[in-house]
Amino acid sequence: MLDINFIRENSQKVKVACKNKNVNVDVDRVLGLDKEKRELMTEMEILKAEQNKISRGGAENKDIFVQAKEIKEKIKSMEPQLEGVNAELKSLLLRLPNIPFDEVPVGKDDSENVVVRHVGHKPMFMFSKPQNYMDLGENLDLIDTERAGKVSGPRFGYIKGDLAMLQFALIQLVMETVKKDKFIPIIPPVLLKEEMAKGTGYLEATDEKEAYYFAEDKVFLAGTSEQSLVAMYAGEILDESDLPLRYVGYSTCFRREAGSYGKDTKGILRVHQFDKLEMVIFSKPDESKKEHELIFSVEEKLMKALKLPYQVINICTGDLGAPAAKKYDIEAWLPSEEKYRETHSCSNCTDFQARRLNIRYRDKSGKINFVHTLNGTAFAIGRILIMIMENYQQKDGSIKVPKVLQKYTGFKVIKS
Predict the structure, then answer these.
(1) Cα(376)–Cα(295) distance, rounded to whole angstroms?
(2) How do 143-144 and 158-159 pair as beta strands?
(3) Is the pLDDT reported for residue 59 higher than 60?
(4) What is the pLDDT of residues 98-149, one digit of tens each?
(5) How far apart, in whole angstroms, are the C-alpha atoms of residue 124 and residue 94?
(6) N or C: which end of the chain has fewer CB within 10 A?
(7) Cβ within 8 Å of residue 152, ≥6 positions away
(8) Are 54 and 67 in contact (CB under 8 A)?
(9) What mean pLDDT is predicted for residues 55-63?
């Protein structure tokens, strides 16, 4: 959520942000409602002051009594109008996106994202054509989507045997890596109250179509552990001396994939249920850019440890999403498709989420400010397993285990 004072003073900048982020919100309507709200509140305050003045003067005079009653009724008649204006204003404010940083490239959609650099070398296979991960997984009895489909429906899979062990190894690698930067491991809840799920600012943009919602209980299933982690401090005032607070959460996540009809319908690349390790930081405003680079450096450190080839993407305004002011993606090389596919994202959301969830800190002078929130993928487990399987496959259909994971798995090769 944007500060209403910022909107008043920078309306053109907000309009440009809406245009560049492909968000359709009438900023002039926001300003009009804000003005109407302030005028109503001022008028009601004047009436209340007059009412108090009359009450102090006593009610012996019949005319004064009648006047006091009229004022009371007028105030009461104005309350529904104020409530209606306030409700519409809040609804529009929640739809306004965060303002992109000046260095973010302007573009209409993901086709205009900017490739920053390539890292690592694509594998050179000594055989004609690499297998895709599903062929490898089925041949080695590592992935079973057929039985998962029978049990749960499409876009589910069983991860089995040595591939499951590889998942646990990836978790250990992340935990060992991030502890050097004082990230606190945490396993968050995956059910969120409505106001908490909406607090991170994603649901308005997707019209809630991506989220699983239980109407009877009024709770959402987490689409990423970022939602639970950021909401953890909702309504609280932190102490400056405790910042930055850095967490790495591990949880199962759930998405409908409502906007992906016909895309990646087979396999485990795009599924309804997946496990993910997510980094979240609460920082002071003047340190958030530095913390953003820290999260991104951890993502690259993990990819380099696995020796997976990847490219770094600077996300353009049209693909940035509502909460982020700046975002990087990492896309790993997928040999069977001969292209890069997204494995990581990393966002600086400034005070956008903190305002929605009312997360603040008290500085040394006693002044209370909103924190900045940042998030980044450590590993989306399923996607990283896919990249390891394809990039480390061998001619006989076996899969080498990245050297950095072998101390956790206890084996060097996955074979039949």
Answers:
(1) 6
(2) antiparallel
(3) no
(4) 999 999 999 999 999 999 999 999 999 988 889 999 999 999 999 999 999 9
(5) 49
(6) C
(7) 272, 273
(8) yes
(9) 62
Where helices occur in 274-399 by DSSP H, the ranges are: 288-306, 352-357, 381-391
Distance CA 239, CA 359 (A): 11
Q: Considering only residues 201 and 411, tell me which one the structure prediction assigns the higher pLDDT.
A: 411
> How far apart are the two ends of the chain, measured CA to CA in Å?
53
Contact by Cβ (8 Å): 114, 316: yes
Residue 72: per-residue pLDDT? 86
Residue 267 confidence (pLDDT): 84
Q: Coil, strand or helix: which one is 338?
A: coil
β-pairing verdict for 413-414 and 237-239: unpaired
Backbone angles phi, psi at 226, to 5 degrees: -55, -40
Query: Is pTM, for the whole model, over 0.90?
Result: yes
What residues are labeled active site?
A: 255, 270, 342, 345, 383
User: Are 51 and 75 in contact, with CB atoms under 8 Å apart?
Assistant: yes
CA–CA separation, 376 and 291 (whole Å): 11
Q: What is the 3-state secondary structure (H, E, C) of 153-218?
A: CCCCCEECHHHHHHHHHHHHHHHHHHHHHCCEEECCCCEEEHHHHHHCCCHHHHCCCCCCEECCCC
Q: Rounded mean pLDDT of 233-242? A: 97
Tokens 């709200």, located at residue: 37
- In this structure, are residues 190 and 226 in contact, taking their beta carbons and an 8 Å threshold? no
Confidence (pLDDT) at 234: 97
Instruction: Tell whether the model's pLDDT for residue 360 goes beyond 60.
Output: yes
Question: Residue with structure tokens 């080695």?
Answer: 140
Residues 6+ apart with CB under 8 A from 55: 68
Spell out the domains of the chain, with CATH numbers in brackets: 4-95 (1.10.287.40), 110-414 (3.30.930.10)
* pLDDT at residue number 343: 97
- Residue 5's nearest CA partner among 83, 91, 68, 93 is 93
Q: State residue 68's pLDDT score.
A: 79
Identify each DSSP E strand in 267-401 by its residue range. Answer: 273-283, 310-314, 326-334, 339-348, 360-362, 368-370, 372-380, 399-400
Q: In whole angstroms, what is the distance from residue 41 CA to residue 233 CA? A: 31
Tokens of 135: 């062929």
Nearest to 354 by CA among 181, 249, 236, 270: 236
